[in-house]
Write a structure and sequence with these properties.
By secondary structure, this protein is α/β, with parallel strands linked by helices. It contains 4 helices and 4 strands; from the N terminus they run αβαβαβαβ. It holds the Pfam family ANF_receptor.
């Protein structure tokens, strides 16, 4: 009798969708769940201005009553302990956060968010970018 197929483990497939496509899908999810209040968190990662502009386009051209609670642009240099980062993240009033940054920056931002109590139940983060995959180990 033939033996059953062996499980090889799951494979993480990263599709190279554009930032605009990712944002369109995220806004569909936000609309579906009636999560209309959100904030944008970004670093100085290349393309962040286009990201912020496209969020404005999506919200301004929509009939949904979006409550855009502002943009927080983080500068992660000269803050090795993450003290300023934790303080800045606490000042964001929305529980829904759209984050645009590099993979390395995301790890630092989520570490600070966990330490500040902003990564547990009640907080929803959408991480956007074309450069977040490419590793066997996903950030915590």
């Amino acid at each position: 009798t033939p033996s059953p197929p062996q499980e090889k483990g799951s494979t993480f497939l990263q599709l190279g969708s554009s930032t605009e496509q990712q944002l369109q899908v995220i806004f569909e999810v936000l609309e579906e769940y009636d999560w209309t209040a959100f904030a944008v968190v970004t670093t100085l990662f290349p393309g962040y201005e286009d990201f912020v502009d496209y969020v404005e386009v999506l919200t301004d051209s929509s009939f949904i009553g979006w409550e855009h609670r502002g943009v927080l642009t983080l500068n992660l240099t000269d803050d090795p302990e993450g003290t300023r980062l934790r303080r800045q993240l606490r000042e964001v009033s929305a529980q829904i956060r759209l984050l645009y940054c590099s993979r390395e920056e995301a790890e630092a931002i989520f570490r600070a968010a966990r330490e500040a109590g902003l990564a547990g139940p009640g907080y929803i983060w959408f991480v956007v970018g074309t450069n977040l995959g490419g590793s066997d180990q996903l950030p915590e």
